[in-house]
Write a structure and sequence with these properties.
Elements: H1 2-7, E1 11-14, H2 24-33, E2 38-44, H3 56-62, E3 69-75, H4 83-89, E4 93-96, H5 104-113, E5 117-122, E6 140-144, H6 160-172, E7 178-182, H7 190-196, E8 200-203, H8 205-209, H9 215-224
Parallel strand pairs: 1-8, 2-3, 3-4, 4-5, 5-6, 6-7, 7-8
């Protein structure tokens, strides 16, 4: 089963939240050269989460410089009003929070209408039950291992059980859904995340700051540890 084999391949999606924003384009090119699979872009509105980050304009400017998958995590509410903007700007995967929409299925349809992959994100306290019935409609579940809103927080190991439950559900339903984890992922806990069933690791501080900022080395350690 090809899809089963594919899902065992670990992908690394560095978060540009930890990049140097004064030279964001250069940082993205460096990540591509260093072997990043995806580029993780955190979008926060200061309303759904307590921080404010970039909008579609920045993504649009970055789009021509790399062919890497733009893995865009929308921490904004109401989310539906912005999906088209982010799709047009060049997002490849659009991930939203079930709490940010009155109608999860409608939001999924809006993303699919733009021919983008659909991700749904669960905050540390959000229950898997929120998305149990829609797993067959989506491409990815993003498990937050910190409270969304700020980079550089400490990993919450209690979310690993949620990944195991999810992995089991996906297998039982025989679906091809990626499990991504984001929040405080480092060289120590990345192996636990993989063992639990995550196949895409988001990492910001570790990728950009460890080993004197040797991106290639840091991506390889996260992938292989």
């Amino acid at each position: 089963n090809i899809s089963k084999i594919m899902s065992n391949i670990i992908k690394i999606s560095p978060s540009i939240l930890s990049a140097d924003f004064s030279k964001l384009g250069t940082e993205v090119i460096s990540l591509e050269k260093a072997g990043a699979d995806y580029i993780h872009i955190d979008v926060m509105d200061g309303h759904f989460v307590p921080n404010l980050t970039i909008g579609p304009e920045v993504i649009k400017k970055l789009r021509p410089i790399t062919s890497k998958v733009f893995d865009v995590h929308l921490m904004i509410k109401p989310v539906d009003n912005f999906i088209k903007d982010f799709a047009d700007a060049g997002a490849d995967i659009i991930t939203f929070h079930p709490e940010a929409t009155p109608d999860i299925l409608k939001t999924i349809k809006l993303i699919k209408k733009e021919n983008k992959k659909v991700g749904v994100s669960l905050k540390p306290k959000s229950d898997v039950k929120l998305i149990e019935n829609i797993l067959s409609e989506i491409d990815l579940v993003l498990i937050m291992s910190v409270e969304p809103g700020f980079g550089g927080q400490k990993f919450m190991p209690e979310v690993l059980d949620k990944i195991k439950i999810l992995k089991k559900l996906i297998a039982e339903k025989n679906l091809n859904v990626d499990i991504e984890i984001d929040g405080g992922i480092n060289f120590e806990n990345c192996s636990e995340a993989k063992k639990a069933g995550a196949n895409i690791l988001v990492s910001g501080s570790t990728v950009f700051k460890e080993n004197k900022g040797d991106l290639k080395k840091n991506i390889e350690i996260l992938r292989n540890n």
